Amino acid sequence: MMKLGRLNHIGVATPSLEASLAYYRDVMGATLTHEPFDLPAQGVKVCFVDTPGENGTHGTQIELIEPLGENSPIHGFIAKNPAGGQHHMCYEVPDIHEAKKWFEGLGKRVLGEPRIGAHGTLIFFVHPKDMNGVLTEIMETPREAH
């Protein structure tokens, strides 16, 4: 039986990466783990921050996503939520294709085919109506992961 792996990150949509980076750094004590970069295939500009964990370790990783133009899927989210907010949660799996078949076998709506995500590994999304109201990203575990 297929099982989800660890929570990799929480995706937060924002109208301004710059403002969100300042907030997470200055208020939440987070550190930037990747410089912001455009991900045109997803229609977003992305960066990752790590919140502080216990004893100087890294806590939870946050993916900040800003729309790249009006055709971005995040553009509609920001239009409905002008301040931004939680967009998705991302879980790791060892085999993305096996995971896709498993979710579909459970009757869950997989949104599109596996494609390269911000971590450079294959991802897909599962419709929030099938996941207790939470848009869920499924990500193949990156090779350099623990």
Automatic annotation (TrEMBL):
<dbReference type="InterPro" id="IPR017515">
    <property type="entry name" value="MeMalonyl-CoA_epimerase"/>
</dbReference>
<dbReference type="Pfam" id="PF13669">
    <property type="entry name" value="Glyoxalase_4"/>
</dbReference>
<protein>
    <submittedName>
        <fullName>Lactoylglutathione lyase</fullName>
        <ecNumber>4.4.1.5</ecNumber>
    </submittedName>
</protein>
<dbReference type="GO" id="GO:0046491">
    <property type="term" value="P:L-methylmalonyl-CoA metabolic process"/>
</dbReference>
<comment type="similarity">
    <text>Belongs to the methylmalonyl-CoA epimerase family.</text>
</comment>
<dbReference type="GO" id="GO:0004493">
    <property type="term" value="F:methylmalonyl-CoA epimerase activity"/>
</dbReference>
<dbReference type="GO" id="GO:0004462">
    <property type="term" value="F:lactoylglutathione lyase activity"/>
</dbReference>
<dbReference type="InterPro" id="IPR051785">
    <property type="entry name" value="MMCE/EMCE_epimerase"/>
</dbReference>
<dbReference type="GO" id="GO:0046872">
    <property type="term" value="F:metal ion binding"/>
</dbReference>
<dbReference type="InterPro" id="IPR037523">
    <property type="entry name" value="VOC_core"/>
</dbReference>
<keyword id="KW-0456">Lyase</keyword>
<feature type="domain" description="VOC">
    <location>
        <begin position="6"/>
        <end position="141"/>
    </location>
</feature>
<dbReference type="InterPro" id="IPR029068">
    <property type="entry name" value="Glyas_Bleomycin-R_OHBP_Dase"/>
</dbReference>
<keyword id="KW-0479">Metal-binding</keyword>
